[in-house]
Design brief:
There is one protein chain. With 114 residues, the chain is α/β, with parallel strands linked by helices. The protein has 4 helices and 5 strands; from the N terminus they run E-H-E-H-E-H-E-H-E. The protein has a 3-stranded parallel sheet. Helix 2 links the parallel strand 2 and strand 3 (47-50). The longest helix is centred in the middle third of the chain and has 16 residues, at 58-73. It starts with a strand and ends in a 5-residue tail after the last strand.
Length: 114
């Protein structure tokens, strides 16, 4: 699965990264996704899907987060982390993301006093 939450990719661009029966999931409505959703629902093993998670209840979202946590713990999904930055370097992290060269997520580490 490829999850594009900010509309930076496209189904066409991500298609080769998907395994058979893979899904490209986006939360951003773009005109190009509509024919791709229709076409992939009829033909092919790789699917393009759009979802609007904001319309779901907090309880449903919490269940999904718990499910994802369990998949992560079991090693069934692996997030792609490009890099990590301490909270004090958040401006630098944003500058790096804005270059458009990141591959994966950029993580901000917040330290808690014990």
């Amino acid at each position: 699965m490829v999850l594009d939450t900010v509309g930076k990719s496209s189904f066409s661009r991500c298609k080769n990264s998907l395994k058979q029966r893979g899904i490209y999931l986006t939360t951003v409505l773009k005109l190009a996704i509509i024919p791709q959703m229709l076409w992939t629902s009829l033909i092919g093993s790789k699917k393009a899907i759009i979802t609007f998670t904001g319309t779901r209840s907090a309880g449903e979202k919490a269940k999904d987060l718990i499910f994802l946590r369990e998949l992560l713990k079991a090693g069934k999904i692996k997030p792609v982390i490009d890099g990590t930055y301490p909270l004090e370097q958040i401006a630098e992290a944003h500058r790096y993301v804005d270059t458009g060269h990141k591959k994966g997520n950029v993580v901000i580490i917040v330290k808690h006093d014990s």
